[in-house]
C-alpha cells in the first residue's frame, strides 16, 4: 500500500508540474507557432534534438498510455470509441489523447483513488465496511472525474466561442468589404484575436493550404466546435459560395443574427435569475431573518407562559 501512495503522489506531482508549465509557457508556445505559420517554416531541426526537446509527457507518459491501452481496452466498442473521440475533439483534444488512452486514464485514476481512500481511512481506524464503502466511492469519483473535466472544457470552449463569434464576424465583414479575400480575412482574425476560435481558424487555414476544399474544412470545423451559431454561419457561407452570393452580405447578416441571439440569451438568463434566487432566499436567508427578528419575541412569550 505504501508503494501505491508513493505512485499516487508521483502522478499528482507530475500532473501538477505539467499544468504549471502549461499555464506559464502555454501562451508563449502558441504565439511562437502562429508566428511560424505566418512568417514561414523554421529551419529543420535534427531528429535527435527534436526527441530531446519533446516534453516528458510525449516522451514517457503518452507511449506508456498507448501500450497499456492495447491491453486494457481490447473490448471497447467502436461506437463508444467514436463518441469519446468526438467529446475529446470538442474539448480541445487535451494532451492529444486517443479514446483508448482516455479510457486507460479513467481506469488508473479510479483504481488509484479507490485504493488511496480505502488505505487512508483504514489508517484512521475506520471499520472495514466503512473503508470499503469509501474506497468504492473513490472508484466512482476517479472514474467520473475525467468525464467531468472533459465536459467542463467543452462548455468553457462553447461559451468562449459564443462570446467571441459576433466580434469575429464583424471583423471578417470589415476585412472582406475592404478588399481582402476570405482566406486573407481569416488570417487577419488569427493575427488579431486570441482564444479557441482563432486557433480553430488557424487549423482551418492549414487544412486549406494542404489542399482540402474550403467547404469540407468548414464543415469539419463546425463539427469540432459543436456550436449551433457557428454551424448556421458555416451552412450560410457554403450555400452563398455555391449560389454565387456576395460573402460580405452573408457575413453582415450572420453577424447581426448572432448578436441578436446573444442578446436574447442574456435576456433569458436575466429573466431566470429571480427564479434561481428564490430557493436560496426561502431555504437560507428567510429562516435566518425569522430567527433574528422573531427569536427575542418568542423568548419573551415563552417567559410569560412559564410564569
H/E element order: HHHHHHHHHHH
| Radius of gyration over C-alpha positions, nearest whole angstrom | 27 Å
What's the total helix number?
11
The low-pLDDT segments are: none
User: How many independent structural domains?
Assistant: 2
Mean pLDDT: 76
Count all strands and give the number. Answer: 0
Q: Percent of residues in beta strands?
A: under 5%
How would you classify the helix and strand content by structural class? mainly alpha
Shape: flat
Cα distance spanning the termini: 65 Å
Structural write-up:
- The protein is mainly α and 307 residues long.
- The protein has two domains: 2-19 and 48-157, no CATH class; 160-262, Up-down Bundle (Receptor-associated Protein), CATH 1.20.81.
- The protein is 86% helix and 0% strand.
- The protein contains eleven helices and no strands.
Task: Record keyword descriptors for this entry.
2 domains, mainly alpha, Receptor-associated Protein, about 300 residues
Task: Provide the fold topology.
Blueprint (H helix, E strand, L loop, with lengths): L1 H38 L7 H7 L2 H17 L5 H13 L8 H25 L4 H50 L4 H11 L3 H14 L4 H12 L2 H16 L3 H60 L1
Q: What is this entry, summarized?
A:
The protein has eleven helices and no strands. The chain has helices at residues 2-39, 47-53, 56-72, 78-90, 99-123, 128-177, 182-192, 196-209, 214-225, 228-243, 247-306.
Amino acid at each position: 500500500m505504501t508503494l501505491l501512495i508513493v505512485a499516487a503522489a508521483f502522478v499528482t506531482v507530475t500532473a501538477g508540474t505539467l499544468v504549471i508549465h502549461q499555464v506559464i509557457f502555454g501562451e508563449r508556445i502558441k504565439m511562437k507557432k502562429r508566428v511560424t505559420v505566418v512568417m514561414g517554416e523554421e529551419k529543420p531541426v535534427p531528429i535527435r534534438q527534436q526527441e530531446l526537446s519533446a516534453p516528458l509527457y510525449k516522451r514517457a507518459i503518452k507511449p506508456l498510455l498507448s501500450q497499456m491501452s492495447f491491453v486494457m481496452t481490447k473490448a471497447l466498442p467502436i461506437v463508444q470509441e467514436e463518441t469519446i473521440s468526438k467529446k475529446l475533439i470538442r474539448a480541445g483534444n487535451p494532451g492529444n489523447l486517443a479514446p483508448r488512452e482516455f479510457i486507460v486514464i479513467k481506469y488508473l485514476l479510479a483504481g488509484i483513488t479507490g485504493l488511496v481512500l480505502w488505505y487512508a481511512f483504514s489508517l484512521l481506524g475506520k471499520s472495514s465496511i466503512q473503508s470499503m464503502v469509501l474506497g468504492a466511492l473513490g472508484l466512482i469519483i476517479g472514474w467520473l472525474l475525467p468525464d467531468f473535466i472533459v465536459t467542463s472544457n467543452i462548455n468553457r470552449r462553447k461559451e468562449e466561442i459564443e462570446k467571441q463569434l459576433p466580434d469575429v464576424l464583424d471583423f471578417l465583414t470589415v476585412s472582406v468589404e475592404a478588399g481582402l479575400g476570405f482566406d486573407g480575412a481569416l488570417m487577419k482574425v488569427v493575427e488579431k484575436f486570441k482564444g479557441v476560435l482563432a486557433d480553430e481558424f488557424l487549423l482551418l487555414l492549414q487544412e486549406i493550404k494542404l489542399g482540402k476544399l474550403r467547404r469540407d474544412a468548414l464543415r469539419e470545423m463546425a463539427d469540432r466546435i459543436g456550436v449551433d451559431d457557428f454551424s448556421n454561419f458555416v451552412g450560410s457561407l457554403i450555400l452563398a459560395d455555391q449560389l454565387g452570393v456576395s460573402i460580405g452580405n452573408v457575413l453582415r447578416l450572420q453577424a447581426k443574427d448572432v448578436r441578436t441571439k446573444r442578446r436574447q440569451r442574456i435576456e433569458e438568463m436575466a429573466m431566470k435569475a429571480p427564479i434561481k434566487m428564490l430557493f436560496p432566499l426561502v431555504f437560507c436567508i428567510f429562516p435566518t431573518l425569522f430567527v433574528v427578528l422573531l427569536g427575542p419575541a418568542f423568548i419573551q412569550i415563552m417567559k410569560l407562559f412559564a410564569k
